[in-house]
Structures are given as structure tokens and as C-alpha cells.
Amino acid sequence: MAPKRRILPVTGPPGAGKTTALISLAAQHPQLARFGVRDFGLELARAGDPLGLRMRETLLRGGLVSDALVRREFRCFLDRLSGEVAAVAVEGYPRDPRQCRDFTEVVAAVDGELAGLVAVELPDEEVRARVVGRRICTRCGIPAPEGATAAAPAAGAAGAAMPAAGRPEERCAACGGAVAPRDDDAEERLARRLADYRTVSAGVRAYFRARGLLHTVDGLRSPAQVRRHLLDLLLPTAAASAAGAPPATRPDPEGGDT
């Protein structure tokens, strides 16, 4: 019997590097798929899918996508996966205990393995140091310089985009999108986002901790170390092959791994 597909939500405060790490890992490992509520919803909308169009309309109004709609979107994503996908990293879902129950039911319905919640941890002061003033690709969402922004054409050269400051516009090396600050990364907005994250994540962490399914990753480690730890949790076999040793598991006294 083939092993069940591992499905793990990944959470962390702004600036923890989780999105950048997961995009990189998914590009390197075809057995790993990444689901983002907003990203997949917009992908469906671009394809003209009614579900995606409803989600985009809600997002453009500044509204909250209903639990039922997110649940349908998540199930749609899982149903479309190819057979080679052995693990799924989920960002932005679940966000509260009720969504945790929905999430668990969907995973069971597709005969997947609920392999735990991965929480990338970062102190508030480090979040502020990383986030305030950072630049994000407006197309793929990868932060710079983690996204390795490409050098723009020299000033005055043909095709050089000249912003108000008189410098060529920076472009993302990953996809070519424009790089710009995010409005909600301003210090006052960040404080609200961080408070919201701490409140929301507490209930989700408690749900998974009670089931012995909480794993933590130290976001203060180097990007390479964070990626390795995430890979070890998401795709233990691939991580072991890369390291040439069996994956190590470390018991967490609170019921998960560290």
C-alpha cells in the first residue's frame, strides 16, 4: 500500500521566511506542493473558475473569505494534485479552531495524513527588524534580497524603468516582477498584523499541540537551515537522501518536534 500524502499547515509571523523557503523547496522537490489561500484563489480566478472568481471578488471588496469557501478551495487544490506529490505545505489555513476542524475533515476525506502544524518562530523585535522597510515582489511575493533581485538596466539605458527617485526600478530575479515596499509592512500596520497573528496562532497551535502534532522551527537560523528543517518535517525521505542519513526526530515535551 502506498504511503499517505503528508499534509502540514505552516505558520509563522511576518518576516519569518516561510513563504520564500516553501517556494524554493517546492521548486526543488516535485514531490512537494505548496498551497496558499490567496495564491491558489487568484490562480483559479485567472483560469475563469467560478470558485476563484468568487474569492477574488471578496478579496477586492476587502472582505473575509468564508470558511466554506476556503474549505472548498483547499479540497479543490488537493483533488488536482498529481500522483507524484507526497507532501503538501499549506499557508494561510487554518486560522482558528473551527477551521482546524474543517482542515482535519478535508485531509481525512482525501485519505491524507495530517502530519502536524509547523510553526516558524521569530521574536517580535526580529520581525520588526526584518519587515519594516522590506521590499516584496509584486508578482510572486518573494521578499528581496531573499528573492535575489536582479540588477536593473543602467540608468538611461534602453528599457530602464525610472522611478521618481531617479533610479532604475528593481526587478525580481525569480519572475521579473516589480519590487516595492508593502503598505502593510509600515510600522503601525505591522504592529496590528503581529498582534493579530499572535492571537490567531495561539488557538491553532493549541489545537495541534493537544493532538501531539505541533512542530517548531527556529526562524533565527540561517535561511538554509530553516529550509533544511522544513524539508525534514515535510519530506523526511527527501531530507534524509540529501543528507545521506536517516531523518532525526526530536521529541518535544509539549507534544511535538523542535
UniProtKB/TrEMBL annotation:
Q: Which residues cross the membrane?
A: none
- List the protein's name: Adenylate kinase
Keywords of this entry: Kinase, Nucleotide biosynthesis, Nucleotide-binding, Transferase
Entry-linked Pfam families:
ADK
Q: Out of the domains of life, which is the source?
A: Bacteria
In terms of InterPro entries, this protein maps to: Adenylat/UMP-CMP_kin (IPR000850), P-loop_NTPase (IPR027417)
Q: Which PANTHER family match?
A: NUCLEOTIDE KINASE (PTHR23359)
Name any one GO molecular function.
ATP binding
Matching entries from SUPFAM superfamilies are given as: P-loop containing nucleoside triphosphate hydrolases (SSF52540)
Q: Lineage of the source organism?
A: Bacteria, Bacillati, Actinomycetota, Actinomycetes, Kitasatosporales
